[in-house]
Amino acid sequence: MQPKKQQWSSKIGFILSSAGAAIGLGAIWKFPYMTGMNGGGAFFLLFIAFTIIIGLPILIAEFIIGRGSGKEAVSAYQTLAPKRIWSFIGHWGVLGAFLLMSFYSVVGGWVLIYSILSIPGLIIKEGANYPELFGQITGNPLITILGLALFIVINIIVVSFGIQNGIEKASKLLMPLLFVFFIVLVIRAITFEGAMDGIRFFLQPDFSQLTTESILYALGQSFFSLAVGISVMVTYSSYLKKDVSLPAAAGSVSIMNIFVSLLAGLAIFPVVFAFGLEPAEGPGLLFIVLPEAFSMMPFGEVFLSLFLLLFLFAVLTSSFSMLEIITSAFTNKKNRSRKKVAIISGVFVFIAGIPAALSSNVLADFKILGLTIFDATDYLVSNIMLPAGCLFIALFVGFKMEQTLVKDEFLSANQFSNGAYQTWLLLIRFLVPITIVIVFLNALDII
């Protein structure tokens, strides 16, 4: 059966739920280590610029497609441009969500394992070697695959029964708590001796550290953090009422995303420099630094456990949206059981995620163009599929979608003027596509 049409109960519920879909591994896990590997402050500044100038207009565009059609990702494009090839954008999004979730769930499994271990206090110990602990967990194929499986099972259960009411209610409580815990962690981090070196690394731009590849990574990170380019937000906004301003909602999500990224950097880099760790540590950076910081706090084990559980929720809300896109795409037009489709989709994601889970152990020496399977999948999705998806969406909304509908959706709720609409339209038609193409060509050394 087709899923019953649902709506968000409030504007704040939609914004926090959309933020939950966006603020997961992108802002909390991936942003710090990508910043550490790409020069610090210059990368952060570029990330902010791309988020505001490119990511925000795309987020508004996805909201317009979703609410304007009232459909999930694939059907939205078919409804708005029937008998045209543009429906491939929805299929591109489903494929992107599938690949993204395959390696995303591996890290989700790491967070889940850390959360389970933190409850009885098995992480923070006297004389503990946190880099070694991370290596032991990710280096064990049974543990990584078990974490992957458990993480996907949670997703299947939630998506099988529908996620809108659960996510909205939980987001209203848990997303603000995540902000509070991050602020507490930042306050502690900046009090360590040597913390200022980390703050300078993070906030003081050194543009000599940037490369053409770093620019592509910053663009990809802005899309990854906002969950744009694979039509996640098309599905979410299809449940939104007409009395909500889409640009205002998108602005709120973008600001929260930048703020969480700022908090993540201020929580991580002062500790990295204070304890002589390597900022370019890579994907394991967060799992090494967080226990180190919490170990220096009173009741650190309790705070670490609570923070990891909240972090796990943020990761899950993002993965729910990915599995929801895959599931809804295959239940929309045919009389299929949502539960069965969610299970089958989850099983395929699990199978696809196994090579990425084994990239840190038995398949560590297997490389694709010099990258592990995990890193290659991440690169493909973050730096190729997401920017390309954003390019397709910009061209679709800017040139192919009915412009009267686009304008009506943008100006709905009467919070923005026609001048704001015209400015956004110029960005989505010209600046966004041109910037994405230039960054792509630069990264390929074509220009």
Explain what the structure shows.
This protein starts with 10 loop residues before the first helix and ends with a helix. 74% of the residues lie in helices and 0% in strands. The radius of gyration is 21 Å and the shape is globular. The protein has one domain (11-443): Up-down Bundle (Sodium/glucose cotransporter). The longest helix is centred in the C-terminal third of the chain and has 32 residues, at 300-331. The model has no long low-confidence stretch (mean pLDDT 87). With 447 residues, the protein is an all-alpha fold. It has 18 helices and no strands.
Features:
single chain, mainly alpha, Sodium/glucose cotransporter, 18 helices, about 75% helix, membrane, transmembrane helix, transport, symporter activity, Transporter
What's this, in brief?
The chain is an all-alpha fold and 447 residues long. The protein has helices at 11-22, 25-37, 41-69, 73-80, 88-118, 130-138, 141-160, 164-189, 195-203, 212-226, 232-237, 246-274, 285-294, 300-331, 338-357, 373-400, 403-411, 418-443. Pfam families: SNF.
Rounded radius of gyration (Å): 21 Å
CATH class: Mainly Alpha
Seen as an oligomer or otherwise, the chain set is: single chain
What is the H/E string? HHHHHHHHHHHHHHHHHH
Query: What is the number of helices?
Result: 18
Helix content: over 70%
What is the level-2 CATH architecture name?
Up-down Bundle
CATH topology: Sodium/glucose cotransporter
Biggest sheet descriptor: none
Q: For the record, give the distance between the C-alpha atoms at the N and C termini, rounded to a whole number.
A: 51 Å
Output the structural class: mainly alpha
Stretches where pLDDT is under 50 for at least 5 consecutive residues are none
**What is the typical, i.e. mean, pLDDT?**
87
Family: Belongs to the sodium:neurotransmitter symporter (SNF) (TC 2.A.22) family.
Main location: membrane
Keywords: Membrane, Symport, Transmembrane, Transmembrane helix, Transport
Pfam family, one: SNF
